[in-house]
Amino acid sequence: MNVVELNPSTPAGLVKSEILNGVLRLEMNNPPANALSIALMQALKDALDATRQDKSIRVVIIASATPGKLFSAGHDLKELTLHRADEDRGRAFFARSMKLCAELMQTIVHLPVPVIAEVDGLATAAGCQLVASCDLAMCTDTSAFCTPGVNIGLFCSTPMVALSRNVHRKQAMEMLLTGETIDASTAREFGLINRIMPRQYLTQVVMKYADVIASKSPLTVKIGKEAFYRQAEMSLEDAYDYTAQVMVENMLARDAEEGMNAFIAKRTPEWTGE
Fold this sequence. Notes:
Largest sheet: 6 strands, mixed
Number of domains: 2
Shape: globular
Number of strands: 10
Distance between the termini: 26 Å
CATH class of the largest domain: Alpha Beta
Helix content: 40-55%
CATH superfamily of the largest domain: 2-enoyl-CoA Hydratase, Chain A, domain 1
CATH architecture of the largest domain: Alpha-Beta Complex
Strand order of the largest sheet: 1-2-3-5-7-10
Radius of gyration: 20 Å
Structural class: alpha/beta
């Protein structure tokens, strides 16, 4: 088992990490609610950034170190509230927190390897945003999700970015306007979750998906993930023009040549990542 090195300035223990067979598992460890404090968000971002220097990592899993309770309660409201005593009523700290949160979510999207959310418990506000930002999301049948900012006079505007890019508009607005909690089945129906299972099978199923993805060409997965998010923001015509160019460049890669030759020869391909 390997451990990802975090930024020396990051408090130790906020994120537990281990690497097994090319799969990096990151567990948020900020009890009791895994609130996304400045320190936890920075720790997660540092851990994700570190994967860019480790070519052995093929997939990342984000989970909670305390499953069955709260996956993440979102921003640390106590931390935010303390800064209302600042001379600027907290403006600078609020801006810093929201900026770091946006950077964390974009880091997940722009990471060259897929990121899977393993959810067992409640994912609320920015915690729900974290789930929506991941490429895949699996949860237990007792998990739940919400964007309840409207209940405390703080609309979930930044969670809305990830949420509205994963679920239909009216369903996103339903969550944002009511602040009500949806169960796992509804989350899957909305498109927020890929799979639901009993708690005892969650990690096993997530690892199965991670292992399958890790067995693919890392270059091909990187190309595909980047293209997926870029084309999603384009017009239909521009998306086809762009992805056609991506396909041509992908076809010229050695892994594509190896994969097609292996398919024709009915053998297992040997990926080089080139």
